[in-house]
């Protein structure tokens, strides 16, 4: 009999890669989407087309801020595993919308954990923690026992969710897993995140659709990996014999400047000719350096990051070159307003 998984945030980057993985493993997958005037399922549309007809993939309207809807959904589908990926996940936005960011990051996990605790069956729960919880105050390698020093509303909400998962695990015996994932990117990354902002601009600059790219701190360092590798780690955590906290990272740290150098070089350009910086894009409380130590996951899960930093950058650039080429074709055929400009 197939396992049943529930994924909140299924329409996001990680939701796409995790859904694809679980469907390939013959899971029945349910995902939540928020009811609004526009429903964006663009990332998972290919999966919907392939799997929805045989009822292996079902979407439900639900909201992290509506505990009742979450509880009813969990009771209805009786999942074996719940992956809580939903959140307001943009750090910069969390400074502008701190209340909403904090509510979704704290009330949602707590509501799900309560439903899991009161369920008629044992349900495994995955909480998407974040390397942002560490604060990045120096260049030391960070592991599951490193101190949390959150520097944004987003990070603070993640600390709460992480710790409440631990409390339910220790107090009620819930199979609660905290996945502390360092930055992970892909062609499906949202276009407001710095990595995708860069590769999107590279494609548009190469095809003459954009003249410059404005960024903030080019000397911020991150431990960047490929999202497709990281969702494999999520699944491994949930299928380990005991629930625990796990760091997933590459063990390497690279600057935004390095990302720019590799990305622009892929199309034969020098980033210095196109990139400008603006204080507008600096965070109020900057996280300067994040470097993860995935030793525990490697030893006990057998997990390894398979995609190098250089391969990741090139993968994203090549994908966005194709997107920019299609965009240019639409403009040339009067199907897209040429005065439209991608936000930098």
Give a verbal description of the structure.
This protein has a domain at 4-186 and 224-248: Rossmann fold (3-Layer(aba) Sandwich). 41% of the residues lie in helices and 15% in strands. The chain has helices at residues 13-24, 45-51, 67-77, 91-96, 98-117, 153-172, 194-206, 227-238, 256-265, 295-301, 309-332; strands at 4-8, 28-33, 57-61, 81-84, 124-130, 175-181, 184-185, 213-215, 221-222, 225-226, 245-248, 254-255, 275-277. α6 links the parallel β5 (124-130) and β6. The longest helix has 24 residues, at 309-332. The mean pLDDT is 92.
Task: Summarize the SSE layout with pairings.
Layout: E1 4-8, H1 13-24, E2 28-33, H2 45-51, E3 57-61, H3 67-77, E4 81-84, H4 91-96, H5 98-117, E5 124-130, H6 153-172, E6 175-181, E7 184-185, H7 194-206, E8 213-215, E9 221-222, E10 225-226, H8 227-238, E11 245-248, E12 254-255, H9 256-265, E13 275-277, H10 295-301, H11 309-332
Parallel strand pairs: 1-2, 1-4, 2-3, 4-5, 5-6, 6-11, 7-10, 8-13
Antiparallel strand pairs: 9-12
> Could you tell me the number of beta strands?
13
From N to C, what is the helix and strand string? EHEHEHEHHEHEEHEEEHEEHEHH
The CATH class of the domain at 4-186 and 224-248, by name, is Alpha Beta
The gyration radius over C-alpha positions equals: 20 Å
The largest sheet, given as strand count, sense and whether it forms a barrel, is: 7 strands, parallel
Low-confidence stretches: none
Strand order of the largest sheet: 3-2-1-4-5-6-11
Structural class estimated from helices and strands: alpha/beta
C-alpha geometry: globular
CATH superfamily of the domain at 4-186 and 224-248: NAD(P)-binding Rossmann-like Domain
Ends: how far apart?
48 Å
CATH topology title of the domain at 4-186 and 224-248: Rossmann fold
